[in-house]
């Protein structure tokens, strides 16, 4: 295989601490010669057409600037107010402004123009996530015939949700320009096939849309993972235990329930707080015995729906505090900021319960990291949403329907009262799964599939 080029919206060092994408990919690129390409994080009036390359902690990273206007349409608009909510089946939270699509395509074309001069004939290009679906089309329009793979880090939508997205047929055609499309879970591949098999609905004018030809594109599930050995080590380092010791003093004998999520409506945070509220309301014996710590770094806060989720959560946390707190006991701590990996690793290890209950999630790496950080002698319990991709891997977690807060409250009770033997047996299976699905194996499998021994097809440029 030639060099590896990774393309994503954010480049290393720019992602929030709780987002798994940058952490996961950095490792892959250090093993393969090549570079990472993406947005610089800067908004300027007139972007330079050429990318600027710099060394970031040993990684060669090419970056381009964007205009405020294009970035708004591409990132806050089409990517995060249309694609993100639709792919997460939250059409009620989508803002369908069709004109954002032009900005989305303009930015993808700008990425392609700046990247093309740096591509060599045998380079392999690996594009990441929903911001950059049209990139293969744009690169092929400029004559690139390289092997190109696309990996979707978020769930793939059901056919109906897909049809609600303006220009969904063009987006599907864009996906067909890749040699390989990777998804997080089998459920996503099934949803994709559902579209491929039943496409061509009538348009408003009554004429059927042209069907998309997927005969040159392989679509497969490659569930992403973490680096479980590195996390296991990290959890006992002095940097991790520093925070843990202080927490232990504060908690005394209380069992810690831990949630770590970007402040995003897909994470089901209000439902989670409600489930905890029910646990305390229905089991008075747990009061003073448990403590919920929810870490939730703010995310995409220029978007109204994110501000509203934040406001809802503020009100709910206030309600639970007012109802259950005593002068000498607090039922929960809610922190709206990001923490570094060492502190998180320590907290995961200290927690008796890892509460990972998104309403829908591509994978959820917090579940992987929580498992990896447990003490094998006295492991905590993972309470996991059945709608996270991770549920296909971690069958021995306590799987819950996060919309059913009674069920989540009951799972919390079971987790808190689970005997040591059962905790150990479940954890061993979970840790084995985390190791099988490590980020190293994920990248290896994807790249093996993308670069077959015979070199695969060289695609003709798109007309
Ligand atoms: C999810 C997406 C990533 C994204 C991350 C953080 O994990 O799959 O592509 O980078 O969220 O979101 P942000 O909008 O801050 O990049």
Quick overview:
By secondary structure, the chain is an alpha/beta fold.
What is the count of DSSP helices, taking H or I runs of 4+ residues? 16
Over the alpha carbons, how many angstroms does the gyration radius reach? 23 Å
Average pLDDT value? Answer: 93
Distance N terminus to C terminus? 27 Å
Biggest sheet character: 8 strands, mixed
Residue stretches low in confidence (pLDDT < 50, at least 5 long) are 15-19, 202-208
Ions, cofactors and other bound molecules: 6-O-phosphono-alpha-D-glucopyranose
Structural class comes to alpha/beta
Structure characteristics:
single chain; 463 residues; alpha/beta; 8-stranded mixed beta sheet; 6-stranded parallel beta sheet; globular; binds 6-O-phosphono-alpha-D-glucopyranose
Detailed description of the structure:
One of its GO terms (molecular function) is alpha,alpha-trehalose-phosphate synthase (UDP-forming) activity. It holds the Pfam family Glyco_transf_20. InterPro entries: Glyco_trans_20. Belongs to the glycosyltransferase 20 family. This is Alpha,alpha-trehalose-phosphate synthase (UDP-forming). This protein is an alpha/beta fold and 463 residues long. The protein has helices spanning 20-31, 68-87, 100-115, 135-141, 159-163, 168-175, 186-198, 228-234, 238-251, 269-282, 304-324, 341-350, 365-372, 405-417, 420-436, 439-450; strands at 4-10, 34-43, 52-56, 59-66, 124-128, 147-151, 180-183, 218-221, 255-260, 290-295, 332-335, 353-356, 381-385, 398-400. The strands form 2 sheets. It has an 8-stranded mixed sheet, with helices on both faces. Strand 5, helix 4 and strand 6 form a beta-alpha-beta unit. Helix 2 (68-87) packs across helix 3 (100-115), helix 8 (228-234) crosses helix 13 and helix 9 (238-251) packs across helix 12. The radius of gyration is 23 Å and the shape is globular. The relative contact order is 0.12. The model is unreliable at 15-19 and 202-208 (pLDDT under 50). The structure holds 6-O-phosphono-alpha-D-glucopyranose. Residues 10, 15-16, 19, 21, 129, 153-154, 299-300 line the site of 6-O-phosphono-alpha-D-glucopyranose. 6-O-phosphono-alpha-D-glucopyranose (G6P) is lined by residues 10, 15-16, 19, 21, 129, 153-154, 299-300.
């Amino acid at each position: 295989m030639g060099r590896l080029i990774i393309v994503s919206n954010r480049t290393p060092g720019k992602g929030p601490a709780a987002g798994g994408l940058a952490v996961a990919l950095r490792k892959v690129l250090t093993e393969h010669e090549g570079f990472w390409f993406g947005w610089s994080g800067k908004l300027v009036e007139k972007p330079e057409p050429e990318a600027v390359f710099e060394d970031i902690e040993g990684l060669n990273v090419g970056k381009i600037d964007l205009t405020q206007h294009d970035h708004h349409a591409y990132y806050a608009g089409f990517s995060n107010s249309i694609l993100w909510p639709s792919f997460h089946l939250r059409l009620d939270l989508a803002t369908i402004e069709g004109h954002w699509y032009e900005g989305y395509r303009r930015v993808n074309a700008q990425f392609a123009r700046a990247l093309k001069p740096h591509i060599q004939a045998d380079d392999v290009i690996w594009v990441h996530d929903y911001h950059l679906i049209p990139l293969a089309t744009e690169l092929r329009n400029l004559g690139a015939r390289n092997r190109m793979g696309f990996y979707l880090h978020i769930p793939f939508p059901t056919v109906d949700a897909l049809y609600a997205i303006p220009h969904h047929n063009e987006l599907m055609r864009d996906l067909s320009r890749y040699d390989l499309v990777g998804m997080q879970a089998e459920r996503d591949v099934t949803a994709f096939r559902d579209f491929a098999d039943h496409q061509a609905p009538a348009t408003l004018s009554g004429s059927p849309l042209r069907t998309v030809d997927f005969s040159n594109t392989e679509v497969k599930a490659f569930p992403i993972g973490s680096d479980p050995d590195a996390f296991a080590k990290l959890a006992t380092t002095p940097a991790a235990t520093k925070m843990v010791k202080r927490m232990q003093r504060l908690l005394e004998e209380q069992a810690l329930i831990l949630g770590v999520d970007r402040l995003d409506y897909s994470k089901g945070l209000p439902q989670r707080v409600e489930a905890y509220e029910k646990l305390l309301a229905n089991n008075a014996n747990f009061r003073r015995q448990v403590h919920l710590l929810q870490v939730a770094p703010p995310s995409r806060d220029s978007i109204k729906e994110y501000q509203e989720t934040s406001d809802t959560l503020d009100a709910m946390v206030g309600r639970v505090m007012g109802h259950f707190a005593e002068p000498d006991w607090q039922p929960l701590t809610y922190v709206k900021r990001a923490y570094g990996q060492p502190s998180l690793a320590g907290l995961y290890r200290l927690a008796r319960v890892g509460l990972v209950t998104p309403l829908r999630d591509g994978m959820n790496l917090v579940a992987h990291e929580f498992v990896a950080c447990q003490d094998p002698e006295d492991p905590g319990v993972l309470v996991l949403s059945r709608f996270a991709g991770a549920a296909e891997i971690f069958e021995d977690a306590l799987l819950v329907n996060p919309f059913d807060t009674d069920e989540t409250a009951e799972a919390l009770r079971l987790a808190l009262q689970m005997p040591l033997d059962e905790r150990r047996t479940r954890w061993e299976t979970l840790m084995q799964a985390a190791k099988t699905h490590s980020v190293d194996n994920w990248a290896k499998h994807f790249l093996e599939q993308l670069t077959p021994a015979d070199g695969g097809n060289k695609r003709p440029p798109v007309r």
